[in-house]
Design goal:
40 strands, 5 helices, twelve-stranded mixed sheet, Udp-n-acetylmuramoylalanyl-d-glutamate--2,6- Diaminopimelate Ligase, Chain: A, domain 1, alpha/beta
């Protein structure tokens, strides 16, 4: 993985200075960096840490005096976090998988395997499934019948792809994620207590005991290009219309997307977020960790929900939401501040009552 400072700078499309031929082995935190490490000190707050380390080259902010910092070479960036994407890509190590099809893989004769695909140990690929060119499937992956996986996919161990799922190019699915499990959809013969509570906000107590009947998921899941799915996350099949994930959407670990959900382009769903059945998320929607979206709701483009936000009604485009139940973030912060003042207000009210009621 060794490369020169100039090679790294060119890959980032930025300028460098000093000994451009200095060889770098890896990126490092400034304080832990050695002579062949690239210290990531992209803000002035890292000056003390940089001095504590032994780096000879560093990634610095624009205009930094690299020579005064005792460095032999420097790379200059204007947007540190974006630079991190490029730097980590340079030093990233792809998972190890042998070319071709492993002897233990079970592949149905009707399945189509694209040119240059690598199929790992104990992979199972069902009838009429299609695997794109240069796709990499690590061990113990299951691809069910009629599923389609696009080109350049990277699918980690334990991933399950259900029947008739269609996935675009450059898909990444991390360990034990599931695409195409059945939706959680059940119904009783007569209206049950939950339905009564939903319509009247209370239970009548007259609902009789009855069993749930399963509503089958007859549709599947369609996933666009450049989608990434975190470990142990689940995308459920649709009931009669496909669940849809738009191009460029990134989904974190332990995220649940229910049946019939439609998610737009370039959305971010952070860990433990959940979207209930038949809800629609516009483009560039962001759900913070543990945020939840109720069923049959619509979130407009560019909606942002802070962590643990519970969205129980439609949200117009561009809103930043927070709280339980969700409200605009500024309003929620004001309400929270007021809530913290309540104990003092109660004491004041009690004192005022005593004054008013005090016998004259």
């Amino acid at each position: 993985m060794s490369m020169t400072v100039q090679t790294i700078a060119q890959s980032l499309g930025v300028e460098c200075a000093g000994d451009k031929d200095l060889v770098i082995d890896r990126a490092s935190e400034p304080a832990a960096a050695g002579p062949r490490d690239l210290a990531l000190a992209m803000d002035k707050s890292y000056l003390d840490a940089l001095a504590a380390g032994a780096a000879e080259a560093a990634v610095l902010w624009q205009g930094a005096d690299w020579q005064a910092l005792g460095l032999k070479a420097a790379i200059f960036v204007s947007r540190p976090r974006f630079a991190m994407a490029g730097i980590t890509a340079v030093f990233d190590r792809a998972p190890v998988i042998d070319a071709g099809i492993h002897a233990t893989a079970v592949i149905h004769p009707t399945a189509v395997i694209g040119e240059g695909a690598a199929i790992g140990p104990f992979v199972v690929i069902g009838p009429n499934a299609s695997i794109g060119a240069r796709a990499r499937l690590l061990s113990h992956v299951t691809i069910s019948e009629d599923a389609v996986i696009g080109d350049d996919a990277l699918i980690y161990s334990g991933v399950r792809i259900g029947s008739r799922v269609v996935i675009g190019d450059r898909f990444i699915a991390h360990f034990n994620s599931v695409v195409g499990s059945d939706g959680f959809s059940f119904v009783t013969l007569e209206p049950n207590a939950a339905e009564e509570a939903r319509s009247s906000f209370e239970a009548s107590g007259t609902a009789k005991p009855q069993s749930y009947h399963r509503i089958a998921s007859t549709a599947s899941v369609k996933v666009g290009d450049d989608v990434e799915l975190g470990a142990s996350s689940t995308l459920d099949k649709g009931t009669v219309a496909d669940t849809v994930i738009g191009d460029g959407t990134k989904i974190d670990n332990h995220v649940q997307v229910g049946h019939n959900v439609r998610i737009g382009r370039d959305c971010l769903l952070c860990a433990h977020a959940a979207v209930a059945g038949s809800s629609v998320l516009g483009d560039r929607v962001i759900l913070g960790g543990q945020a939840g979206v109720g069923d049959h709701l619509v979130l407009g483009d560019d909606v942002i929900a802070a962590g643990a936000t519970a969205i129980l009604s439609n949200v117009p485009a561009g809103r930043v939401m927070m709280g339980y139940p969700a409200m605009p973030m500024k309003q929620n912060i004001a309400a929270y501040k007021a809530l913290r003042r309540l104990p003092r207000l109660v004491v004041k009210i009690n004192d005022l009552q005593k004054l008013v009621l005090k016998p004259k």
